[in-house]
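Before we proceed, please read the two lines closing this message. Let me know whether the structure tokens fit the sequence:

…
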Amino acid sequence: MTVRTTAPTAATRLLDAFEGVIGIPLPVRVRCWDGSEAGADADLTVVFRNRRAIRRVLWSPNELGFVRAYVSGDLEIDGDIFRLLTLPQLVDRLGKLSLRSPDRRIVLRSLATFLRLAGPGLPPRPPSVEVSRRRGAKHTKARDASSVSHHYDVGNDFYRLFLGPTMVYSCGYWDRQPKSSGDSGTLDDAQIDKLDLICRKLGLGPGMRLLDIGCGWGSMALHAAEKYDVSVVGITLSREQCQWARARVEEAGLTDRIEIRVQDYRDVADGPYDAISSIGMSEHVGASALPGYAAKLFGLLKPEGRLLNHAIASVVAREGGNGNGLIDNYIFPDGEVLPLSRTVDAFERAGLEVRDTEALREHYALTLRAWVDRLRDSWDDAVRLVGGERARTWLLYLAASALGFEEKDRLTIHQVLAVRPSDDGSSGLPRTRSLWLG
């Protein structure tokens, strides 16, 4: 524990308590509501603006308590958010406090300090942007539409701050010589290269018909129509995305070749299509609905038609989320990140033939860090557009996600290419990967 040479203040007592339960010195500075400060003279200061910040952590001594304190503004981070999120064992140890610990006396002493500093009070109300607990079956059409709206209908101008002119909200493909993560041109190039990679994997060409499931702001549809001369139907459950995408299509003069709909994938009935792209959408499908999703896509494809499914995957199963953290309560309600094996199994059981899968884990880490840089550079505009709570939510989410993809045993992302074989078993694919990639 850190040696103190002055009378204990709120900050020194608080830092001592945290170090007691963590078991190691923390390389941070702590500032409290009374102006007191303690800790290493580091470039990272954790600011407890009021006693309520401590009560939030006490009532939810895990990831959710920290998230609520930060999102609400009761706790501030003065410095690099990545440094706080990578402090060894911090959130993990706080979430596993137990009176059965070998250091039980230290834990009890620290807990008593927290209680005294927190003061009396009921559990603080969650921040207004937290998703209320919902009842009923998951992944109904109405509930999925509500979940998608929560995440995407927060303002197109807000998303543009960190997505940039491409308006692509998925992992880029960093095929060119990397520059700094904050170089907007490099990020934009990575997104364009990703769209082009998908088009080439799908074998798109003039006269073909593409279905883009979860079309977002229309970027894939526009790229495919402009560069590969295909007709595209793009579907989304977000009305704000649809409005923006339709305006882009009209501005590009491509209304005769691109149709953007507000539509659930389960309601698409105008197949067959030569190709289907699903980019960053199947995370919303869920384990229980995955077999139906795979069967629906199979039915919408022509024989020898290709499917490209671009989706985050977990290294271990995380079905249904843990219901107790940032992603479940603030970002993707009802989202489920499944192992790659579950997706491949569902596709094969539906009759699709999986021909290729490509992992892009490091690519997503680069993309997320570039988004963080852009959001921080546009912070005042972000707060003006969506308010402080939501802006802090997105910054925390993007930063934590970047770290999740940088660690090899947490998250990854795959592009899975599958085909619907013809009745005679033909896939329609050239024999080698180099040939079908073009």
